């Protein structure tokens, strides 16, 4: 294991096992903090099974909804009710049934100007700083308890794409992305690496045969965005058998 070599890789059998494992990590983070809990969700298809699990009675009864706040690591400039809207997906699957509205913090792409994504990014940055209570992140006091992440086939994570100058941003907490190089090819807003790193745990979910090629590159240490994303605390990669590279036990 290279590059992001403080990560802890957990091989799981399939998507259901991945969702259950991710749910237990999330519950452990809510139990470890008796105050306000901050969870940063991710978009894409990988977290869907987890979100569906959190909506079930077995799990929703174990989450202290009144003190858990939900954020999103990146958002596309699509309408809030568009299936491609990352926070909209989480709200539809579980948040709208379970969480107080005031505890759901979407990135405001539904109302911001897609021609000027940095302006919408600045709004979310202010919301994060207001929640955190400061405009400088303190490594001893992470912003998030848990940050969920995925990996794109090109090695991107959140909306941080290979070669994007945003990867080297270390002052701003949130930046605009004028155009994504994966579907949907729309402007986006994304948290930057230092902001995503400000967490007790960063948890990647990577599943499916189509992710084996990029995981092979990542585990070989290639300098790709997903290898640059790591927590100031624990970094956990949940990988299913389909995605796990052959020399790591993949089938
Ligand atoms: O807005 C996004 O696109 C996501 O934040 C993105 O980083 C996602 O996590 C990966 O593209 C993996 O997507 P899948 O889970 O659909 O493979």
Automatic annotation (TrEMBL):
Pathway: Carbohydrate degradation; pentose phosphate pathway; D-ribulose 5-phosphate from D-glucose 6-phosphate (oxidative stage): step 2/3
One MF annotation (Gene Ontology) recorded for this entry: 6-phosphogluconolactonase activity
Taxonomic lineage from the root: Bacteria, Pseudomonadati, Pseudomonadota, Alphaproteobacteria, Hyphomicrobiales
Coiled coil region boundaries: none
Name this polypeptide is given: 6-phosphogluconolactonase
Biological process per Gene Ontology, one example term: carbohydrate metabolic process
Catalytic activity, reaction form: 6-phospho-D-glucono-1,5-lactone + H2O = 6-phospho-D-gluconate + H(+)
Record has Transmembrane helix as a keyword: no
Organism domain of life: Bacteria
Entry function: Hydrolysis of 6-phosphogluconolactone to 6-phosphogluconate.
Glucosamine/galactosamine-6-phosphate isomerase domain residues: 16-237
Enzyme's top EC category: hydrolase
